[in-house]
Amino acid sequence: MSEELMNTQEVARYLDINEKQVYNLIKSGRIPATKVTGKWLFPKRIIEDWIEANAKKGLKEAKERGKKIAGALLTAGSNDPVLDVLLSRLRRSHPEIYVFSANVGSQSGLEALKAGYTDIAWTHLLDMESGEYNIPYVSTHLSDLKPVIINIFRRELGFLTAAGNPLNFRGFEDLADHRIRLINRQPGSGTRVLLDYHLAMRNIAKELIQGYDSQVYTHYEVGLAVVSGEADVGVATRAISRILGLPFIPITQECFDMVLTQETFFKKSVQAFMEVLNSPDFRKQAANLGSYDFSHASSIVYTSV
Q1: 233 FRET partner, CA 20 to 30 A, in 17, 21, 123, 303?
Q2: Are residues 57 and 93 in the same domain?
Q3: How far apart (Å, rounded) are the C-alpha atoms in residues 258 and 110?
């Protein structure tokens, strides 16, 4: 092969891409090429000019936008109305940061972090043996990632009941009453783990609970199931009870944390998130929902050595 001409394999190596991507570029007309005796050939000089032209074009477009895109921040795990507010404020104050969040539950969020599918896991996972939140699971299952746990807030979790609490629901023992329909959360969610913990402590058989297998993925869905009459009771945050105007029976105050690697912690997007978390405007808006404790917010709860 002449030094002045390259075939598809050589172009792929030169551009550090897969050969299939070279064919895609040819097909879409995005790379200069010529076909000789059934084979695609690429004049090296023209390819070099093409690379330079595209680099200049990209730089020009970036300058016209006036700022660089800081990249995407992927998050997964638990959910909360105040977290939604927090992420929305981050987007408004830092439009160059794109945040994508998946409501998959605490345990699945941590598993996604371990697998490299997310940058941040939101979690409030209770360890049934120690009664401690998040640290036992992270220190045992994610230690090889060099994880960091940072508190976002503490919040109240409790039972939501239908307006007026017509069945006079009082607590866990009443879940075994055949008249009462529960709306549950999915396995692996922090709320489901908490419920199972209390049921085990009281020796209440899951089979006795009507609706134990009825599952939703967010606190809002729990509240909506109660409001719509689909269920009589469910476990959610006090904030949801205030938003939907439902009676609330407290269970506990829990730690809502974020888990990420030490490397991710120092990214600009994460530091911007911490800045918004500590901002007076956000705290004022969160206070309107009530029952959130930010006294430990942004503090490092755990870090591996």
Answers
A1: 123
A2: no
A3: 10
Number of helices followed by number of strands (H, E) in the chain: 12, 13
pTM here is 0.74
Same domain, 84 and 205: yes
Q: Which domain holds residue 56?
A: 5-65
Query: What is the dihedral sign for C-alpha 15, 17, 20, 21?
Result: negative
How wide is the angle at C-alpha 68 spanned by C-alphas 32 and 14, nearest 5°?
Answer: 30
Residue linked to tokens 């016209």: 64
Structure-token pair, residue 98: 């794109």
Location of structure tokens 């939703």: 216
Q: Taking 60 as the threshold, does the pLDDT of residue 62 lie above it?
A: no
Per-residue pLDDT reduced to its tens digit, 109-165: 999 999 999 999 999 999 988 889 999 999 999 989 999 999 999 999 999 999 999
Return the higher-pLDDT residue of 143 and 6.
Answer: 143
Question: CA-to-CA distance for 45 and 73, rounded, in angstroms?
Answer: 39
Structure tokens given for 21: 């991507």
| Domain-ending residue, one of 65, 86, 110 | 65
Which amino acid appears at position 269 of this protein?
Answer: S
Which amino acid, one-letter code, is at 151?
N
Supply φ then ψ for residue 240, to 5 degrees: -65, -40
Q: Are strands 182-185 and 147-161 parallel, antiparallel or unpaired?
A: unpaired
Q: How far is CA 71 from CA 17, 67, 68, 99, 241, in A?
A: 21, 12, 9, 9, 36
Average pLDDT, the chain: 88
